[in-house]
Amino acid sequence: MAINITPTVITLNGFKFRETETGIEFTGQANTQGFVGGSQATGSVSGYASGGNPGPGAGVDTIDKFSFSVDANSTDVGNLSVARRNVSGQSSSTHGYSTGGVISPSPYYDVIDKFPFAIDANATDVGDLSAALDGPPGQGQMSSTHGYHTGGFGPSPPSSKSINKFPFAVDTNATVSGDLVESGYGHGGQSSATDGYKSGGLPPTGGGQIEKFPFSTDSNSVEVAALNSNKTFCSGNSSKENGYSGNGFFPPTSNIATFSKFPFAVNTDASDVFDLTVSRRQTGTQNSQTNGYSAGGSFVSQPVKNEIDKFPFASDNNATDVGDLSQARTGLSGQQV
After folding, report:
1. How is residue 252 annotated by DSSP?
2. 41 φ, ψ to 5°?
């Protein structure tokens, strides 16, 4: 007769460990999502900001980390496998990912980088996207089992509709699991427990769309709602209940500080709810259980930014500046644990 014994689970400093026959195994962040189901779009311990552009055409390989429990500056804890900007970020329960990117005017990259949350270490190249593409800066989309890189801009095709999907369980190349409604880039990415969202982005005629695709099946996205106005080079945040699409600019030069909010439970248009401390575009974004963060970014004809802004999910209040990145930059990716 088989006897099933539930393994002992230990929580230490916000991380989960469990006892196995061969020792103690790190199993990820300690949050209400547990070991299965849901999305990794919120964390409880730390936010990360990786890659980006410190100046015209340049790129950095820096991985920054900052605490969710106290308001403080970030620290440099590692490096990507290659320096690049306009990278997209994804998070599993144990690792951060940074996908795609570019060094202007070229080359474009198909790299899927992966770095651990349990220790401060460099990223390793663990796979490729279906094509060399820059990504929506900030965050892409993520379920509990897969990361997604949606759309992007590259040499071939110049503007992609592809939804790239890669597993967290094994290191392998991404596959195309569907298409966006319209090819584009510079959009925000959001994730609920069941669906991925794409909001804003180029081309300007389609920059007000909110698209949605399911995690449970490989399917094309559908348009389900709209932002208050067209915006591009915006970034996305996610709470458990709502998606946020923020900052960016309205072509050709009008930068935006405003964040819009839309619910995951129903398909309805977004409403403008608060402002960042500074108007900017192409920020890196991170999500704790209670707050959203928007780091770095740039403004037309002004230096790149190093501010880390924080806003509450519980109320629609303006963001506050709670710290600085180790290096000012724009077009960076965000992760959380």
Report:
1. T
2. -80, -10
Which of 277, 281, 289 lies closest to 321, judged by CA? 277
DSSP 8-state assignment for residue 178? E
Residue 278 lies in a domain: yes
| 254 located within any domain | yes
Q: Which domain holds residue 270?
A: 44-336
Half-sphere exposure of 223 (CA within 13 A, CB side): 10
CB atoms closer than 10 angstroms to residue 2: 3
Taking only the tens place, the pLDDT of each residue in 113-152 is 999 999 999 999 999 999 999 988 889 999 999 999 999 9
Q: How many domains does the chain have?
A: 1
Phi, psi angles (nearest 5°) of residue 205: -65, -20
Picking from 206, 159, 215, 166, the residue whose alpha carbon sits closest to that of residue 185 is: 159
CATH number reported for the structural domain that contains residue 222 in this entry: 2.120.10.80
